[in-house]
Design a protein that fits this description.
- Helix content is 33%, strand content 11%.
- It contains 11 helices and 12 strands.
- It has helices spanning 8-13, 30-50, 55-59, 69-88, 99-103, 127-148, 153-183, 248-256, 268-277, 314-323, 331-339; strands at 206-209, 212-216, 232-236, 239-242, 285-288, 291-296, 299-302, 376-382, 408-411, 428-430, 439-440, 444-445.
- The strands form 4 sheets. The protein has a 4-stranded mixed β-sheet with strand order 10-9-8-11. Strands 1-4-12 form a 3-stranded antiparallel β-sheet, covered by helices on one side.
- A hairpin with a 2-residue loop joins β6 and β7 (299-302).
- α2 (30-50) runs antiparallel to α6, α2 runs parallel beside α7 and α4 (69-88) packs antiparallel against α7 (153-183).
Length: 449
């Protein structure tokens, strides 16, 4: 966020306490500097996504499942203040009384919190104060790295968990902002990024994988969320997986064949959802004359038939697969295909904020493409604990086990995901009717005997 948004005189009039200066870099060890740089880099990436937004942009909430940008900024500061600074800095004083109630998200054991659907009612604290809050917390963490390096193992675990969670909220910020802007009568653009005209993508191909006993889940070094744990052996029958994501053009063929009008293609609850919500196309699509238009973070534009279809629910992905005569992959199948993936898609770092068509020049002998990036890919697997799953006690809250009911797994990340955040074992999860996420479709099938 640009400094000029929060001039000192305004801060003084509001009675704000400006954060003390950061410690000089010379007092930090090389390792502490690296840790501080990593921390500030991820924190800065969040603020860069909010740069250029007005206080009004950052305050509004478009639906109960979305949160204002200002809340995202505050919550990710609250996490580090609550679980790192208050727990590991003996004389630490919270920035503002009452922020526990305003910015707590899922940690009910810490006490009352503002209901999620009321986050858009917060005209106070102001955006300026929330930005000051982030600076205050950033400075506290840098001082902690200076004073207590190397950190205790519990603090290190919280720091890494918090940074991974902040990257999750970076993607969520973009998804929530897109939903908000799509409802604005002016249809504003978040970032005016020109999306180049594309050439036709290659026809869908299938890559075969033999049956066998495979190891699924995270069991090695490096960070993983608790729901990735419980690495286990799983026997997979022979399967084939599609070479790329399903395109807008292919999904449009489903629509033109009455896909949203044929109950035999849908799960019973999915068909009820279609009727109750009057679904007739992916979220953000609209018909203007003979053209299909789609709202993007670059504004309203004509649907590109070669781009991956995006913002579809599990119900829609499942119905499309049934219409196609095949199915969605299981998460085990997806993970095995992704372990050796050589062709990724585009992530938030590209600045495109939108799925990109698969380049026709990519080599078919490299295996399935776009397994990472562009759109999250729905699987046919429910979000359940793996065999041998053990909730972790090294990070606060243990969110995974709270969300292991009535949800489906998505894999691979999207055009709004930081590339360093994703891995083959990563398990995202959403309700079957969710469409606000950057979610798309990859098909799989069982070979004929």
């Amino acid at each position: 966020m640009p400094d000029e948004r929060i001039p000192p005189p305004a801060a003084a009039r509001q009675g704000l306490t400006l954060p003390p200066p950061r410690p000089a870099a010379s007092v930090l060890s090389i390792e502490a500097r690296q840790a501080g740089s990593h921390f500030l880099g991820i924190r800065g990436a969040t603020e860069a996504l909010a740069a250029g937004l007005s206080p009004e942009d950052c305050a509004l909430q478009s639906m109960p499942d979305a949160s204002p940008v200002k809340w995202h900024l505050g919550h990710t500061a609250w996490f580090f203040e609550t679980f790192l600074l208050q727990a590991h800095v003996p004389d630490y004083r919270p920035f503002r009384e009452g922020f526990d109630y305003l910015f707590n998200a899922d940690y009910d054991h810490l006490g009352p919190r503002l209901p999620a659907e009321r986050r858009g009612l917060q005209s106070r604290p102001t955006l300026e104060e929330v930005v000051l809050y982030r600076r205050h917390v950033n400075d506290g963490v840098v001082r902690l790295l200076s004073d207590q390096w190397p950190l205790p193992s519990t603090a290190t675990a919280v720091l890494e968990f918090g940074l991974q969670r902040e990257q999750q909220y970076q993607e969520r910020l973009l998804a929530d902002l897109k939903h908000l802007f799509s409802l604005n009568p002016a249809r504003p653009a978040y970032r005016s990024v020109p999306l180049p005209v594309t050439s036709a993508v290659k026809p869908l191909q299938w890559y075969a994988y033999p049956e066998g006993l495979r190891r699924i889940g995270h069991g090695g070094d490096g960070f993983a969320f608790d729901n990735e744990g419980g690495a286990h052996r799983q026997f997979l029958e022979p399967f084939e997986i599609a070479s790329r994501l399903i395109t807008n053009g292919e999904f449009l063929a489903f629509m033109e064949d009455g896909g949203y009008e044929r109950p035999e293609l849908w799960m019973a609850d999915g068909w009820k959802t279609v009727l109750a919500n009057d679904w007739f196309a992916p979220l953000y699509w609209s018909r203007e004359g003979r053209k299909w238009m789609a709202f993007t973070l670059s504004g309203l534009r004509e649907v590109d038939l070669d781009e991956p279809v995006c913002h579809v629910s599990w119900y829609e992905a499942d119905a499309f697969a049934r219409w196609s005569g095949v199915r969605l992959p299981t998460e085990g199948e997806w993970e095995i295909a992704a372990l050796d993936a050589a062709q990724g898609g585009n992530f938030v770092e590209s600045g495109r904020f939108h799925p990109a068509p698969l380049m026709a020049t990519l080599r078919a002998d490299w295996g399935p493409a776009q397994l990472f990036g562009d759109t999250w890919e729905w699987t046919g697997s429910a979000h359940l604990p793996y065999p041998g799953y053990r909730p972790t006690d090294t990070v606060p809250g243990d969110l995974g086990r709270k969300f292991m009911a009535n949800l489906f797994v998505l894999r691979g990340g999207s055009c709004a995901t930081p590339q360093s955040h994703i891995r083959a074992t990563y398990r995202h999860f959403l309700p079957s009717d969710a469409r606000w996420q950057f979610s798309g479709i990859r098909l799989a099938r069982t070979p004929k005997a």
